[in-house]
Amino acid sequence: MADTSNAPVLNISGLRYERNDRKILKGVDWRVGAGEHWVILGPNGCGKTSLINCLTGYEMSTAGDITVDGSEFGRTDWREVRKRVGLVTSTLTSYLEPGEPVLDAVASGREAMLNLVGEVSAEVRTEARALLERIGCGYLADSFWGVLSQGERQKILICRALMSKYHVLILDEPCAGLDPVAREHFLGWLQQLATAPGAPSMVLVTHHVEEILPCFTHVLVLKQGAVLASGTKQEVLTSECLSEAYGAPLSLEAGGDRYRLTLLNP
Ligand SMILES: Nc1ncnc2c1ncn2[C@@H]1O[C@H](COP(=O)(O)OP(=O)(O)OP(=O)(O)O)[C@@H](O)[C@H]1O
């Protein structure tokens, strides 16, 4: 049997994404190996969400190759691939109907559907309710998506991602809108999830270095739609690299097992 232990979970080569005459991604190469957990950093508008949207088939790339969990974009039904990718992104917020019941929004994550069409089994509903309870949102099960606060929406999207039988979990600014306590609880849970046996590979898009938990092994830094740096946390996460990425003098400090970034001479 072929040895697939070193097969990448995500593999992107020469990815270009252009819209309305804008070159948003300009030839991105990126490989996520099994067991690696990545953070994506980069200034506003550098293309982080566009990269995630191309990876998950929510946006069509202009050129390049994308392989997710062994399936190549264009050769596989992307709806099937999505079932193996847990995704938490505010992009989904605009796709979900305001009248979608929260329990359905979570349950539909099993089939990676947006807005529940048809029936889901009682078993899946029970699982969705249990997940909502686990994340402290059981009280929202019978509410509608449209009335939730921003923080509640993030938590529901996290529950939804957990419903999929994912091999990779992509989190695009998952802490946006979470209060400080909810954020620390969420990060603690993420660290546990990443270090559990058989954990999925994780990709975290963030602006905040303090969210880079010890479980993260690699960092991708984007700047103006291109890869500025890509490699292990030790190689990439430096004051020099982040200063270049954000175009300002920054000092990165590691305190305990978390990081802190300070703008020098603000
Ligand atoms: N359909 C489009 N037409 C023109 N420009 C677009 C389109 N979609 C995205 N962009 C531009 O592409 C750039 C990258 O956007 P993207 O959302 O990927 O950035 P980001 O790195 O996730 O930013 P942020 O950190 O602010 O969330 C932005 O400048 C955005 O305005």
Automatic annotation (TrEMBL):
The keyword Nucleotide-binding applies. GO terms for biological process: transmembrane transport. InterPro entries: AAA+_ATPase, ABC_transporter-like_ATP-bd, ABC_transporter-like_CS, ABC_transpr_CbiO/EcfA_su, MetN_ABC_transporter-like, P-loop_NTPase. It comes from the Bacteria. It is found in: Cell membrane. GO terms for molecular function: ATP binding; ATP hydrolysis activity. Keywords: ATP-binding, Cell membrane, Membrane, Nucleotide-binding, Transport. Residues 10-249 form the ABC transporter domain. Belongs to the ABC transporter superfamily. This is Iron complex transport system ATP-binding protein. It comes from Roseimicrobium gellanilyticum.
